[in-house]
Amino acid sequence: MCSRNDIVKRTPLGGNIDPEKIIPFVKTAQDKYILIALGSVLYDKLQDDIAANTLTGNYRILVNEYIIDTLVHYAMVEALPFLSYTIANGGIVKNISSEQATSPNKSEVDYLLQKELATAQFYAERLTTYLIAFSSSYPEYLATTGFSNNVYPDKGQQYRNGWVI
What we know:
Blueprint: H1 4-10, H2 19-38, H3 40-51, H4 57-79, E1 85-88, E2 91-94, H5 106-133, H6 139-142
Antiparallel strand pairs: 1-2
Helix pairs in contact: 2-3, 2-4, 2-5, 4-5
């Protein structure tokens, strides 16, 4: 749903990052967060439209204005703990790019992770609020097909009842 350029332009990730280091985390973020936010019916429709290059209208707006920001920041949440490491045949190696560089300590990484998580949650709430407000434009969002393997969208803590006295 997003490109390397989306990640570089919308997150603090540097432009010289190897795409191989971030792509697995984009997939993880799609599965863990975007699928849950959209539900499987809308998610599958968007995936199909993107694959067929037929994404248009409200669906293009949804992807470009709401989903990509949510996705790239959740991808960063997933990637941050691993970016300093390479896992290969020889085991796990901590990357140090130059003699001048120092690796951050755990509390610094945790701080960055919390900041990125807060940003991702902001965009996820914005996405959910938009989908609820404009659900008539996205009938797949409310669609239920009765299959036990469907993921139904998490609509957050939306209160629909009035006051109870």
